[in-house]
Amino acid sequence: MKVTRGEIVAAAREQFREKGYAGASMQDLADRIGLKKASLYMRFSNKEALVPEVLEVLLQETLSQAEAGTSGAPWQITYEKALRAIAGNLAERKRCVGLHLAYGVSDETPAAKEAVRNFFQTLREHLIALLSPVMSSDRAALVASDALARIEGATLLVAVFDDKAAMERAVQASRRDADAAVQKAR
């Protein structure tokens, strides 16, 4: 059976989503995709090597969703669309791959830890870039960081309490914060 690298990464993403970093195993992944464990190790040296690729796929999906159809749109529309793309991917199936990995990796898995950091840093930088034309870069960094924290917190409420409205409240509150920051800058 021929299994592509993309299929392995997609299956690893689901395994990380379901079991977190610590609970995921190369044997379970091999079983899931129908490969022998040795064949899997020929493509990925260990579980940690999967993390950067899993997060890169998730990042590209998120940014593509965020940017789709926003060319020339006012900042408010592009910012809210970006927030919704991030929120959607963080809360997908009540499990956030990025957060599972953020809490599961450590100094003992430096490549995975760096991939998680880069994932969230890129999301933050994307939001800052959308806000910087309408407010100071320092203020944009604070508003973007607060938005990510708020959305990540809402992910917890979705997962633990099945409070899907929490994500909408987080997006709306983040949007209001950005509007207030723009008004203050004027």
Characterise the protein shown here.
With 186 residues, this protein is mainly α. It has one domain: Orthogonal Bundle (Tetracycline Repressor, domain 2). It is built from 9 helices and no strands. Helix 1 crosses helix 6. The model has no long low-confidence stretch (mean pLDDT 92).
In short:
The chain is an all-alpha fold. The protein is 78% helix and 0% strand. The N and C termini lie far apart (62 Å).
Low-confidence stretches: none
In total, how many beta strands?
A: 0
Named CATH topology: Tetracycline Repressor, domain 2
- Tell me the domain tally: 1
Secondary-structure element series: HHHHHHHHH
Structural class: mainly alpha
Question: Separation of termini?
Answer: 62 Å
Estimated radius of gyration: 18 Å
Helix content: over 70%
Arithmetic mean pLDDT = 92
GO molecular function, one term: DNA binding
Protein name: AcrR family transcriptional regulator
Organism: Rhizobium laguerreae
DNA-binding region: 25-44
Structural key phrases:
186 residues, Tetracycline Repressor, domain 2, 9 helices, 78% helix, 0% strand, elongated, DNA binding, DNA-binding
